[in-house]
Structures are given as C-alpha cells and as structure tokens.
Amino acid sequence: VLLPQGNVFAVSIVGPGGAALIQGTDYSVDRASGIVRALPGGALSAGETVQIAYTYAEEVIATTSQGEPTN
Questions:
Q1: Does residue 1 surpass a pLDDT of 60?
Q2: What is the DSSP letter of 65?
C-alpha cells in the first residue's frame, strides 16, 4: 500500500476483526516513501481490508541567507 504521504512514523494497522497487527511480523514500513507491505507468514492475506493510522512530517529544507541548503 502506498500511503498518500512519505516521511511517515507512528504507523499502526488494524486487521480484519479489529486485531492490531505487528510491525516486523505482519507488515513492514518504508518510512521515507510511505510504502506498507504485508510480510510472508504474517497475519495479512491478499485482498483483506485493513485500517492504517499514521502520522507524517513534512520535509523542510533550511537555507542560508545565500540560498545554499544547510542539511
């Protein structure tokens, strides 16, 4: 699943029946791109509907007075 935003953190997923899924066991998260993947052997099966809650941080690039990036 590609989330609408990247740079995500505090991801939680509730599976069918309301069971909380476990990151690293049931799913993985690429925090930079916002991609959530079901893991083999986990509690998710293809085609199941889940609820994903997450927060994200906007990317900010600070610049010096000369316009050069500082990070």
A1: yes
A2: T
- Please write the tens of the pLDDT for every residue from 26-53: 999 999 999 999 999 999 888 899 999 9
Q: Say how many C-beta atoms besides its own lie within 10 A of residue 66's C-beta.
A: 5
| pTM, full prediction | 0.76
Q: Please tell me the number of Cα atoms within 13 Å of 40 on its side-chain side.
A: 0
Q: What is the 3-state secondary structure (H, E, C) of 10-59?
A: EEEEECHHHCECCECCCEEEECCCCEEEECCCCCCCCCCCCEEEEEECCC
DSSP 8-state code for residue 60: -
Phi/psi at 16 (nearest 5 deg)?
A: -55, 140
Report pLDDT for 50: 94
